[in-house]
């Protein structure tokens, strides 16, 4: 494969960008250089996660949000918007059917928008392994807003809470998963809640049920926003002062993604959340926590790889049979092997 | 660590409202291990070429039932060229009269599949054209 010029990507060459993303996705050696060239320019984009069960209308909502961000009147230059839409890879065939673009026809022809579909390729947290690397490339390429639609398999999608600055959780009436949502802890990752399909009469009920859950979670200051960020981190992560003015209370938006009702208010709330993060210093905290976690993960991967390359296979098998024979505990075995 | 996957765009240009055939092909290619981007009904040649560019696909499959293939196929091929996507392989599926097939092949389409085609054949032809080992 021929070279891709990172400068061309920065100057808006969409073909170069697209091919770079493929290299990144395939973990091709050539992707290293591109990432290195773009990384210094990243860290500026507002990363917005859109999560929620399949069929709630995430793709339709992304279509409307992207349009709204491009058209908002208070801005001199329309922001460039990138969309990453993740769908599941079939565990049986390794193939994937990526259908999110079906809902995004309105965005065709706008050169300020770039949409890329992504298969999860075996990752289980709602994103693909290389989604974070995609974000760095798109951010470094100069996109101001990056909308990330997750798989939405119904479990807690922790990856998006770590990656995005703002997490929008989408619910819809009639899917019968209202209780499921609390179980999955999806409310804990929500910065903004959306009840989509408000054209349906049951939408009000869904919104009321959500509001009741929110009041339980956020009432009496038991789970403040600052506390929430603290819970998300691990040892060594930073938090901010637990000041009342630092609290972000997620609001609930009733919208109809098919006709655009409620979208402008939602887009404005997403912007407001960015400003909140920047003014409280949480933006920086999130950024540092994320980079620290990425570094931790990479070190683990690399150490494992180094160890795998030098370990004697026969010795490993011998120790493993000891464990299987219950002669050594797994911990003793691991200590002997490293 | 990750292997290269063949990426295919299945697109439905033209105005007819039937996409059952397109969906059958899309699912068959997924089941053959490919990553298939399906874009839905009523795509203009511009939209198809733009999606092919953004998704960096290896193959574009056009499903055409409307009889407008003699207009739509060259239009899509032209737009792909304009987007510097001349290396993207194009196949056509749908109701295409026999006498029109040579013309489509001449325009750069590598295969034309009629209504009764075994979907496995479509997948096999793609695998033949690609060696997924090389990125
Ligand atoms: N009635 C109604 N249907 C909607 C609305 N938004 C999306 N849908 C429909 O819900 C279905 C799933 O939408 P999609 O965006 O693909 O959901 P996703 O799986 O969460 O990405 C589609 O048939 C949409 O047309 C809405 O606001 N009202
Ligand atoms: Mg979707």
Describe the structure.
The complex is a heterodimer of chains A (338) and B (135). Chain A has 13 helices and eight strands. Chain A has 338 residues and is of the alpha/beta class. Chain A has one domain (42-300): 3-Layer(aba) Sandwich (Rossmann fold). The radius of gyration of chain A is 22 Å and the shape is globular. Mean pLDDT of chain A is 88; it is low at 220-238 and 240-244. Helix content of chain B is 40%, strand content 19%. In chain B, 47% of the residues are buried. Chain B is globular and about 40 Å long. Chain B has a single domain (7-130), classed as Cobalamin-binding domain (Rossmann fold), CATH 3.40.50.280. In chain B, β3 (59-64), α3 and β4 (89-94) form a beta-alpha-beta unit. Chain B has helices at residues 20-31, 45-55, 69-82, 101-106, 119-129, and strands at residues 7-11, 35-38, 59-64, 89-94, 109-113. In chain B, α1 (20-31) crosses α5 and α2 crosses α3. By secondary structure, chain B is α/β, with parallel strands linked by helices. Chains A and B meet through α2, β3 and β4 of A and α1, β2 and α2 of B. β3 (96-98) of chain A pairs parallel with β2 (35-38) of chain B. The site of magnesium ion has 4 residues of chain A, from α4.
């Amino acid at each position: 494969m021929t070279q891709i010029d990172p400068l061309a990507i920065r100057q808006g060459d969409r073909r170069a960008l697209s091919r770079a993303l493929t290299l990144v996705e395939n973990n091709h050696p050539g992707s290293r250089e591109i990432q290195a060239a773009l990384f210094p320019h990243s860290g500026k984009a507002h990363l917005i996660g859109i999560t929620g069960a399949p069929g709630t209308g995430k793709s339709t909502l992304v279509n409307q949000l992207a349009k709204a961000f491009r058209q908002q009147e208070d801005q001199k230059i329309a922001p460039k918007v990138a969309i990453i839409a993740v769908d599941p890879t079939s565990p049986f065939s390794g193939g994937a059917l990526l259908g999110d673009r079906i809902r995004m026809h309105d965005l065709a022809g706008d050169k300020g928008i770039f949409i890329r579909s992504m298969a999860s390729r075996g990752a289980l947290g709602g994103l693909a392994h290389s989604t974070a690397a995609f974000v760095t490339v798109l951010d470094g390429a100069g996109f101001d807003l990056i909308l990330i639609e997750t798989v939405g398999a119904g479990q807690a999608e922790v990856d998006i809470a770590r990656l995005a600055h703002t997490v929008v959780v989408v619910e819809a009436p009639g899917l019968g998963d209202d209780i499921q949502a609390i179980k999955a802890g999806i409310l804990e990752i929500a910065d903004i809640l959306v009840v989509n399909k408000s054209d349906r009469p049951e939408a009000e009920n869904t919104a009321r049920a959500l509001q009741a859950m929110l009041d339980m979670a956020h009432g009496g200051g038991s789970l403040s926003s600052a506390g929430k960020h603290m819970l998300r981190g691990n040892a060594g992560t930073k938090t901010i002062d637990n000041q009342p003015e630092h609290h972000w209370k997620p609001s609930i938006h009733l919208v109809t993604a098919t006709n655009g009702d409620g979208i402008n208010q939602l887009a404005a709330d997403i912007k407001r959340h960015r400003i909140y993060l920047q003014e409280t210093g949480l933006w920086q905290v999130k950024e540092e926590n994320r980079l620290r976690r990425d570094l931790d993960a990479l070190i683990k991967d690399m150490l494992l790889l180094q160890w795998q390359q030098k370990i004697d296979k026969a010795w490993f098998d011998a120790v493993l049979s000891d464990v299987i024979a219950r002669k050594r505990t797994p911990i003793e075995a691991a200590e002997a092997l490293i | 660590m990750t292997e290269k996957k063949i990426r295919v765009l299945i697109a439905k240009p033209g105005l007819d409202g039937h996409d059952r055939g397109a969906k059958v092909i899309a699912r068959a290619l997924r089941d053959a291990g490919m990553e298939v981007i399906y874009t839905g009904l009523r795509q203009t040649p511009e939209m198809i070429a733009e999606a092919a560019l953004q998704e960096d696909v290896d193959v574009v499959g056009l499903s055409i039932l409307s009889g407008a293939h003699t207009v739509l196929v060259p239009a899509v091929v032209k737009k792909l060229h304009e987007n510097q996507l001349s290396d993207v392989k194009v196949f056509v599926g749908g109701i295409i009269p026999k006498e029109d097939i040579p013309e489509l092949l001449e325009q750069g389409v590598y295969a034309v599949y009629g209504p009764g085609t075994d979907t496995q054949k479509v997948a096999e032809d793609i695998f033949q054209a690609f060696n997924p080992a090389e990125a």
